[in-house]
Design a protein that fits this description.
Blueprint lengths: L5 H7 L14 H10 L2 E4 L6 E6 L5 E7 L5 E5 L3 E3 L6 E9 L2 E9 L1
Antiparallel strand pairs: 1-2, 2-5, 3-4, 3-6, 6-7
Protein backbone atom coordinates (compact mmCIF):
# COMPACT_ATOMS: atom_id res chain seq x y z
CA UNK A 1 0.00 0.00 0.00
CA UNK A 2 1.42 3.38 -0.95
CA UNK A 3 1.48 5.87 1.92
CA UNK A 4 3.08 9.21 2.60
CA UNK A 5 4.86 8.02 5.77
CA UNK A 6 5.94 4.37 5.81
CA UNK A 7 7.29 4.39 9.38
CA UNK A 8 4.13 5.93 10.86
CA UNK A 9 1.83 3.61 8.88
CA UNK A 10 3.75 0.47 9.87
CA UNK A 11 3.72 1.49 13.54
CA UNK A 12 0.12 2.72 13.79
CA UNK A 13 -2.10 0.94 11.27
CA UNK A 14 -3.67 -2.39 12.15
CA UNK A 15 -1.92 -5.06 10.11
CA UNK A 16 -2.47 -8.15 12.26
CA UNK A 17 -2.23 -10.69 9.48
CA UNK A 18 0.68 -8.91 7.73
CA UNK A 19 -1.34 -8.59 4.51
CA UNK A 20 -0.08 -5.05 3.83
CA UNK A 21 3.35 -3.79 2.91
CA UNK A 22 3.63 -0.04 3.34
CA UNK A 23 5.75 1.89 0.87
CA UNK A 24 6.40 5.53 0.01
CA UNK A 25 7.20 4.68 -3.63
CA UNK A 26 4.27 6.30 -5.44
CA UNK A 27 5.98 6.55 -8.84
CA UNK A 28 3.66 4.04 -10.53
CA UNK A 29 0.54 5.69 -9.12
CA UNK A 30 1.78 9.13 -10.15
CA UNK A 31 2.44 7.87 -13.67
CA UNK A 32 -1.10 6.48 -13.95
CA UNK A 33 -2.61 9.62 -12.41
CA UNK A 34 -0.72 11.87 -14.84
CA UNK A 35 -1.99 9.88 -17.82
CA UNK A 36 -5.56 9.99 -16.53
CA UNK A 37 -5.61 13.55 -15.23
CA UNK A 38 -6.83 14.83 -18.59
CA UNK A 39 -10.32 13.38 -18.12
CA UNK A 40 -12.94 16.08 -17.65
CA UNK A 41 -16.69 15.90 -17.15
CA UNK A 42 -18.90 18.92 -17.76
CA UNK A 43 -21.08 20.73 -17.01
CA UNK A 44 -20.94 19.94 -13.35
CA UNK A 45 -23.50 20.59 -11.92
CA UNK A 46 -25.43 19.07 -14.81
CA UNK A 47 -29.10 19.52 -15.74
CA UNK A 48 -29.56 17.34 -18.83
CA UNK A 49 -26.49 16.09 -20.71
CA UNK A 50 -23.12 15.19 -19.18
CA UNK A 51 -20.10 15.33 -21.49
CA UNK A 52 -16.90 13.37 -21.00
CA UNK A 53 -13.77 14.87 -22.53
CA UNK A 54 -10.74 12.58 -22.73
CA UNK A 55 -7.41 13.88 -24.00
CA UNK A 56 -4.25 12.07 -25.16
CA UNK A 57 -6.10 9.60 -27.41
CA UNK A 58 -7.35 7.59 -24.46
CA UNK A 59 -10.28 5.25 -25.11
CA UNK A 60 -13.48 5.28 -23.04
CA UNK A 61 -14.64 1.68 -22.73
CA UNK A 62 -17.75 2.49 -20.69
CA UNK A 63 -19.13 4.74 -17.99
CA UNK A 64 -21.57 3.85 -15.22
CA UNK A 65 -23.65 6.37 -13.31
CA UNK A 66 -23.90 5.27 -9.68
CA UNK A 67 -26.08 6.73 -6.92
CA UNK A 68 -25.00 7.32 -3.32
CA UNK A 69 -26.19 3.82 -2.35
CA UNK A 70 -23.89 2.25 -4.94
CA UNK A 71 -26.68 1.27 -7.35
CA UNK A 72 -25.78 1.44 -11.04
CA UNK A 73 -28.46 3.57 -12.71
CA UNK A 74 -27.08 4.00 -16.23
CA UNK A 75 -24.30 2.53 -18.33
CA UNK A 76 -23.03 3.93 -21.61
CA UNK A 77 -20.13 3.70 -24.04
CA UNK A 78 -20.75 7.24 -25.32
CA UNK A 79 -19.04 10.50 -24.35
CA UNK A 80 -22.45 12.21 -24.00
CA UNK A 81 -24.88 10.89 -21.39
CA UNK A 82 -28.47 12.04 -20.95
CA UNK A 83 -29.08 12.43 -17.20
CA UNK A 84 -32.41 14.23 -17.48
CA UNK A 85 -34.28 11.21 -16.07
CA UNK A 86 -32.34 11.35 -12.78
CA UNK A 87 -33.52 13.25 -9.73
CA UNK A 88 -31.47 16.10 -8.31
CA UNK A 89 -28.65 14.83 -6.13
CA UNK A 90 -25.10 13.53 -5.99
CA UNK A 91 -23.97 10.74 -8.29
CA UNK A 92 -20.69 9.22 -9.44
CA UNK A 93 -19.44 8.60 -12.97
CA UNK A 94 -17.31 5.46 -12.95
CA UNK A 95 -15.34 5.46 -16.18
CA UNK A 96 -13.27 2.62 -17.58
CA UNK A 97 -10.54 4.23 -19.70
CA UNK A 98 -7.63 2.27 -21.18
CA UNK A 99 -8.08 -0.52 -18.59
CA UNK A 100 -8.10 2.01 -15.71
CA UNK A 101 -11.04 3.04 -13.56
CA UNK A 102 -11.67 6.74 -12.86
CA UNK A 103 -14.42 8.02 -10.57
CA UNK A 104 -15.77 11.58 -10.73
CA UNK A 105 -18.48 13.09 -8.54
CA UNK A 106 -21.48 14.61 -10.35
CA UNK A 107 -23.99 17.08 -8.98
CA UNK A 108 -27.34 16.77 -10.77
CA UNK A 109 -29.77 19.73 -10.70
Amino acid sequence: MNVDNEVYSTANWDNDNNSFIFSEDCELINTINNKLSNVNIYPNPVVHTLYIDIENKQQLQDVSIINMEGKELLISTENEIDLSSLSSGIYFAVMNINQNKIVKKILKH
